[in-house]
Amino acid sequence: MKRLGIVALLLAAYVAVPLLLGRNAYVMSLIDAALVIGGVAMAWALLGNLGGMVSFGHSAFVGVGGYVSAIATLHGGLPVFAGLLLGGCGAVLAAVAMLPVLRLRGPYFALAILAYAHIFRILATEWTGVTGGAGGIAAIPPLPVVAGIDFGGKTGAYFVILTIVCLFAWLYARVRASHHGLALRAMHDSEDATRVLGVNSTLLKAAMLLLSSFMAGVVGAFNAHYIGFLEPDYAFAGLWVTLPIVAAIFGGYRTILGPLAGAVVVYLLDQLVFKALIPSGHQLILGALLVAMIVFSPRGLLPLLAARGKRDA
């Protein structure tokens, strides 16, 4: 039954959504943006759920991934899809520079990662010969046309980002189901006990940080080619921290698809419903909705729906 549900969900995502909404460029652009946020939220949740680390600095990986891919494709002539992977690799290198902070725990780790994000933003601003400085990079190559399909359009880009997040969800599930995932979850109860059993907790945490950074970097690279422009204040903006965290918590950050579902629900409700009701203060409704979810279902939206489904059955 679970596999049938996944197949039905994929068919709806790949077939029903483009057929029903593909002609509405505005709605498709909102869905694309929601999936971008969902991809970063999934990367953030992987680090928190498996790595046990709360990050306030995923904007560093999004920004570095976007800049690496933009520069490599614009000035190096690299194909765009290869640039997406290179953007993820660039984010991994940024995460390697952050490895020393793995010795920190709790809020100290979160604040240290946030400091790194500010450092990378400053580097992007000051390194004018490569990044264009505060003026940013314009005319970033768009997603290409392949076999007659324009992936640079709203619907074509939707297929690209949807495929990216689906692959990341599959990878997340494989890691969580592995013996490494079991060890990581055991570390949440007692890291010292798992070390006694021979588990290298520092190495596993580092692996989760690198994997999470790669995911966020690829999504950041996609976003750079999707919008065609990049500048430091946007690439490393705080919204790449706050929105993914809100989405992950709302949808259920301890589930695989919860962060993605949370991003779609939260962002589309905010843009299509709350913004129409209160144009200048629609974030207030969104904040109230998040508080209500935390109070009545701390585990998030998907666990709440699953529990209700079992009661109805």
Automatic annotation (TrEMBL):
It comes from the Bacteria. GO terms for molecular function: branched-chain amino acid transmembrane transporter activity. It is found in: Cell membrane. Coiled coil: none annotated. Keywords: Cell membrane, Membrane, Transmembrane, Transmembrane helix. The keyword Membrane applies. The chain crosses the membrane at residues 25-47, 80-101, 108-124, 156-175, 196-222, 234-253, 284-307. It is a multi-pass membrane protein. One of its GO terms (cellular component) is plasma membrane. PANTHER family: HIGH-AFFINITY BRANCHED-CHAIN AMINO ACID TRANSPORT PROTEIN BRAE (PTHR30482:SF10), HIGH-AFFINITY BRANCHED-CHAIN AMINO ACID TRANSPORT SYSTEM PERMEASE (PTHR30482). This is Branched-chain amino acid ABC transporter permease. It comes from Pseudoduganella buxea.
